[in-house]
Amino acid sequence: MIKGLAITPPVIGRISIGKLVQRHDKLLPEKDDSFTLTTQVQNRDGWLLHPLHQPLAEQANNGKIRAIPVRLPFNNSELNLRAEYSAFDRASGRPLCVGNGETARRVTPDGLEEATCAGPDRCPFARDAGCKLYGRLNVQVDGQQDELGTFIFRTTGYNSVRTLAARLHYFEAVSGGLTRYLPLTLRLRAKSTAQSYRTPVYYVDLTLREGQSLIEAVTQAHAEAEQAESAGVDTAQMEAMAKRLLQNGQFEETEEDVPQLLEEFYPETTPEGELQAPATPIRPARLTRQLGKVNGTELVR
């Protein structure tokens, strides 16, 4: 295995709740009030829709997808949702510092060093480097053919990360560590606060399927887990390998991915960490030359 390269869960599609739009020669984030399922391919018009998007849109009210039937790829909550405080170098596209609120891995002139992580609000380095919370959730959408592939939802919003983390740990505990077998729904919710000036702020939640009780869901999960074990499916070994592969690298994001992540998730933010349209272009000229025209983003909440 190549050392220094984090091996992440295979991704076959993206789940987003927003996009970048071209306005006055600038790429600006635009909010959306529904999910979009896309492939990992872009053209001049933006991200190409995934084949699973249209069936879900046809079933939704007004074509707006606000609920997606999903399963989780792992029982371990930390594997399904990986969230860290992250800062990136906009000029080089390299990760600068990644921390968990206690310790951080920071790139210095002398190489990679361990540092104390106080979070973006209390760390001078974080404020200067534009550090913020960054989460990645992997799910499997009902109807996908690849049993090991996942859709990824990326977010820099506290509301989404906090809600998803709570749900995942609750489901893991109440099911006896069988979260992978629970039939769940990824939902888009809205809230407003004084900091959002009473306008809606959208975030992502994870719930049971509509009409199904917790007892029914857990009973079904135990039955499916027993069936998988009888068939020889070793979920524990798969999760041990997934953890080992993720820890194989210093940072999860690669230099190839970071320039696009900067466009989609690191523009100017409101006090709550929600996206707002910046007054200036959200990337320097050097990255513009590298990237060309890009018209897709997630609004991260």
TrEMBL record:
<dbReference type="InterPro" id="IPR043991">
    <property type="entry name" value="Gp3-like"/>
</dbReference>
<dbReference type="Pfam" id="PF18897">
    <property type="entry name" value="Gp3-like"/>
</dbReference>
<protein>
    <recommendedName>
        <fullName>Hydrolase or metal-binding protein</fullName>
    </recommendedName>
</protein>
